[in-house]
Amino acid sequence: MLFKVTGRIYDAENGIGISGLVVEAFDKDLLKSDKLGQTKTDRDGKFEITYTEANFKSALEKFEGNPDLYIVVKTTDLAQVLYSSEKNIRNEASNNENFDVAIPKATLIAVQEKSLQENKQLFKILMGIAWLDGVLAPGEKEYLSKVATQKGLTEDPEIKGLLSDSQPVQPQQCFDWLQTYLGKNPSPQKFEALDEVLENLITSDDEIDEREKELLAAFADKNTRQTVLQQRLASIFLDPDFLAKVTSDTPDSPETAQKNLKKGYAYARVPQAVLSKITAAQCDLKVKEELANRFLTLNYAPVQKEITQDNLEVIGKLPEDLSGMFFRIGPNPRFSPLGLYHWFDGDGMIHGVHINNSKASYRNRYVRTEGFKIEEKEGKPIWPGLLNLPRFDEPYGIMMKNVANTALAWHHGRLLALWEGGEPHEVRVPDLETVGAYTFNNQLTFPFCAHPKIDPQTGEMMFFGYQPLTKPYIQYGIVSPEGRIVKTMPIDIPNPISTHDFAITEKYTIFMDMPLSLQPMRVMQGKIPLVFERNKPSRFGIIPRHGGEIKWFTVPTCMVYHVVNAYEEGGEVILVAYRMDWTQLFIPEQENPLDFASTDALLEKIKPELTKLYRWRFNLSTGQVKEEMLDDEVAEFPRINDNFVGRKMRYVYSGIGALYMERPLFDGVKKYDLEAETAQSVYFGRGRFGGECVFAPRPNGKAEDDGWVLTYVYDAVQQRSELLVLDAQNITAEPVARVMIPQRIPFGFHCEWVSSEKIANAQR
């Protein structure tokens, strides 16, 4: 059936029809009105809109009768509403409806003046968008001059200045103009209106001649102009500086925060109206292939089976007083990944060896997060990894899947699997079955970091979470020994960052403000979204543990992923950590100088990823900071005796970098004696590579290093894995024991040792 809406719009004082006005017809629905059509009034003010049932009946509305009709009359530029009948709905409208609308002259005059000001405001926004790439091309300038003439803006002094060549429009100026138009925490309707009026502003009914087509290039036709506009608006909408201007300063409610944790950290607080404007992007196939070759082959490839096996073969003898469970967690994708795959993306799998009475057993289990279980049920991958734009359509309420693959922490009798983009997951010991997401009895309202710090004296656990796009960029929390979050607070930093670790001392907490940022709209340009901004300095912030004034110390630009430990000495706070000049996370791309091809210049080419042991001394009284290198050899993944976290320690155990390999690998363990300023190294042998090592203290041991160093080793020649047990006090001696693992353990991330005593005393 064909439906028709007709009518006339005229001047209320003299009855003369008003031409060129925009008339829109809608069907009022509970959630969102269906737009039935749009037209313009003719020279007599008359209009006609036709539509069919398909315009207002969807599959969900198949039992709906005729539309509940209303119309809206707007100015030619769509910027102002002159009339709306939404408060006088014509329920069950007939197939012929007529509207007779008189517009008072005073309304027309006021609207004309307001339209002129709004056109000026919108034109400035359009100018700012044109300048986003830092250049106003001749074609763009010519086109914008044409738009200004059409809108009667050429005599405005401000517009004249913008159209001159004297000064480019800076992004911040454009953000300010947009924020003025949209307001704080704008509604989806406001974003829709912005789209509509900007589209109208750049749409000209005039023909474009051949010369203009050549100059304008991408702006040569209306459809392409709209696409370019959308892409540039999207790059603004996901800019943290812009988001800071339009997102609400009010903290999320606990209910909203819980939903955001499930959604995924990076985009959770970005307004849905913004996300709805972002289109999908194609990944660079060469980069995709290189990343897959780097992180999905050899011993980075996932294992397919979850197994349990007792009475493992042991070469040597396991000490009788070494009793507990050794774990390593890492990425193990269940399905072939979507888009670009990075090592950080795979589903978390825990590999555990249980040691008791000089015998060992092994088991490996996936961390069954909600996203993992959904994909398992669907039999396919649903969510891409961090180098891609997320699922803005939020399947199952999730934009980014919590992969729970990065680190482990034992606190309050629980083993927690951690991923810094969301909530922890509790894993049962010793069977490694996933209990479920752990939110501290729904107290957790922001992402939980991968490296919480547990004070061995007080039992407190300190943690933080970061939001790489929206404020607050960093939040800090404290968990009591009984497992309750007793305090949270925002940490004020000027710009969003991606940060992985932090440190504590007996009295203080130390945060790192490193210039590694997430810039998601680079994905739209075929680039990697993580960027290290080498023109910005690095900072360390020191705050009293339970709150107070934070003191910032600026150091030369660098990146720190992992800290060793921190402690107090006199009036200084001492931090020991691994430092690099800059980072690209081993990600290849055209504009990145990293190239892992085998050449004589290999060491120079991977220099950004070279981590070396450093110490910083922060004087809290003078504000001075001293930075010094402790070792020139490349190493990473440091661990200490955890009984010394936050206190002065003597010994550090780190993985030695295998620089001759094309991937991040360790071919030995290095023990540092910071008091004697010496070090000892043990190498695993040809074709043998390890990972993070953990110190397991001897029960009732007297010395800081009285115990064992444990790490998994993969033998690429034999193609098998083993658990290596070294005497920490004689690390260069032959291994105390080698426990042969019944299947390959892929290279992973962080490890944990939990003694049998802790397991037995665990509170449930």
Automatic annotation (TrEMBL):
InterPro entries: Carotenoid_Oase, TerB-like. Binds 1 Fe(2+) ion per subunit. One of its GO terms (molecular function) is metal ion binding. Keywords: Iron, Metal-binding, Oxidoreductase. It holds the Pfam family RPE65. Gene3D superfamilies: TerB-like. This is Carotenoid oxygenase family protein.
